[in-house]
Structure formats: C-alpha cells, structure tokens
NADP-dependent alcohol dehydrogenase C (Mycobacterium rhizamassiliense), 346 residues
Amino acid sequence: MSTVSAYAATSATEPLTKTTIERRDPGPSDVAIDIKFAGICHSDIHTAKSEWGVPNYPLVVGHEIAGVVSAVGSEVTKYKVGDHVGVGCMVNSCGQCSSCKAGLENYCKRGATFTYNAVDRDGTITQGGYSQAIVVDENFVLRIPDSLPLDKAAPLLCAGITLFSPLRHWKASKDTRLAVIGLGGLGHMGVKLGAAMGAEVSVLSQSLKKMEDGLRLGAKHYYATSDRGTFKQLRSSFDLILNTVSANLKLDDYVSLLDVDGTLVELGIPEHPMQIGAFPLALARRSLSGSNIGGIPETQEMLDFCAEHDVTPEIEVIEADYVNEAYERVLASDVRYRFVIDISTL
Ligand code: NAP
Ligand code: ZN
C-alpha cells in the first residue's frame, strides 16, 4: 500500500478538501500510474453533490486521467515503466458477459466497476483521479499516443469517448446534419470530432456568447435556444442530435428538430427525469436514444483517431486548490472548455 495526496468530496455541500488515500500495491496484472493531469467532468460534480444519489463520502472523483507508468505487475504485457497512459470511467468489468466479450465493457451486464464510488474487486470503494497515483488492471489502461500532450489527452478519456462512440454508432459522415446541444466539455468535443468525421455541425447553445469559438472549433452554424425562432427555423432539419446538457431540457422541442428517421442521443445525465410527448416521436418516426462513454477498444481507437486527426480539447490547466472555483464556473456554463488539474500542484 502507498499513501498519496488527493482532493475529496466530504458532503453534498462542503467544498472539496485536501486529504490522503491509500493505493494498493500492483498485483500481477496491475499497472501503477503517476497521475500528471485529471480533467473535471460535470459527472464529478453531479456525484460530489449527491445529485445521482448519496455517494460513499469521503470520495475522490475524477475519471479523465493521464499519467506515466511507474510500476507494472509480473504478468503485465501491454505496458512498461515510463509509458504515457490514460484511465477513463472504468477500472474493471466482469469480462464474461456478451457486452464485455464484444468490447463493450461500458455496458457490462453485471455492471462495470467505475473509476470512483464503485465497489472494487477487493471490496474497497474506488477512488478517482484527483490524486497523485492510481493502480489499475492493464486491460483498463489506455495508451496515449506520443503526439498527444498529457494535459490535452486527459479530457479525451471521458468527454472524448462519450462523443466519439455515438458519432461512430450512428455513422456520422459528410452526409450527416449533426446538432450538438450545449457547448461545454462534452459538447465542444462533439463539434471537433463531428467536424473531423466530415459532418455538417450545428451548435445549439443557450446564447450566442460562444459563437465565435463554436465556429472556430468546426461548427458551420450556431444557434441560440433562448430564441424561440430557432425552433421554428430548424424544424425537421437534423439527422442526428447529441444532447450534452447537464440539466433538464424540454425534449419535445429538440426532438422536433430531427428529420424523418433522425435520432436524438441523450448524453447528459441530469439529476431529474425528463418528459417527452409521443407526438414528436411518432409524427416523423424519430428515435430517442442514449449512450454511455464507450468500450475499451473504442476508447483506444478514439485516442489514435485524435492523434491522427490532431483533435484535442480546449483546456484551462488549473492548480489543485482552484478546484472548487472551477466547479462553480462549470455550473455557471463558464468553462472554456475543460478544466484540467495539474496534479503536480496537489
Ligand atoms: P459542462 O461542461 O457543464 O457542459 C454542459 C453544457 O450544457 C454547458 O456548457 C451549457 O452549454 C449547457 N447547459 C448547462 N445548463 C443548461 C441549462 N440549464 N439549459 C440549457 N443548457 C444548459 O458538462 P459536461 O462535462 O460536458 O457534461 C455534460 C453532461 O453529460 C453531464 O450531465 C454529465 O454528467 C454527462 N456525462 C455523460 C456521459 C455519458 O457517458 N453519457 C459522460 C460524461 C458526462 P451552453 O452554454 O452552450 O448552453
Ligand atoms: Zn465524465
């Protein structure tokens, strides 16, 4: 066991505070990682604030982890000391079910072991990336290509794969009229990845404040959803809509923007359930779906795609003691476009 510094949530209302946690010694198939950077995902905030149920406090969140291998177990074959690696939202899964066998560990039938607030194989509660080190089974470690700097690679491990996977599943291409709702951490990766796959990207944001950024990141069009005229103008005009908003939306309005046979994919996971009328779905054979991160093989494919196509997030690197302010800014939609904690400041 080793003791490492970390930032932990202790209740739904208290700020995160500095603490220490224990990491296990690497077992035969484990990789020990010195964490260099950790992204701040809105899921960290939902969890820390008990919006998805009360977690096991004190809890270290963070599932956008980039670092360097510091030790490997005796049976590890894929990684060696010094390699640049990442860890995303999962650290294990059953490995036996049809999802796991298909490389869809994110849809493990027995439930994947998530990077924080999950019961690990040894019965302890998993603790995430706002910490100096982590020990993970080699099958849940990703290789970060040399051309990707570690700070920019970190957000790809959640925000990147969460957008890459549905874009691939729904076959985004030059023939796809794609809309991304919300220009935050996830949304801006949707714009970049969608554009890299050739889609005609529109951003649906609350206001036009970030329009210049959206267009620079690869969007062709940018609309304000605070303007009711937007919904009239864009009726039936998209093939695929990716909703990345962390709060409830009036889904009827957005589903109506899909053309016949179009799909709206719910990626945001707000605290409260949302409603949808049957009419907007039925009237144009539209689909409502959802998607949760991506499997390990697809996450590696995404990292390699980002290296090849030079797709990286826009980040603001922060010192660890800025984390609570960063949370406030994310909640105020004032993130441009992902906060990344420099773990050397922890
Ligand atoms: P984020 O950086 O806070 O981005 C969310 C964006 O949604 C904001 O920047 C804002 O964009 C828009 N928004 C926020 N509040 C809104 C409101 N009340 N009405 C309309 N729009 C609003 O968050 P994130 O890290 O991208 O995460 C977004 C959501 O995805 C969270 O719920 C998170 O838990 C979830 N998530 C899901 C997965 C998955 O696998 N499915 C993975 C990671 C995260 P504008 O300012 O442009 O309007
Ligand atoms: Zn996340």
Summary: The chain has two domains: 2-158+294-345, 160-290.
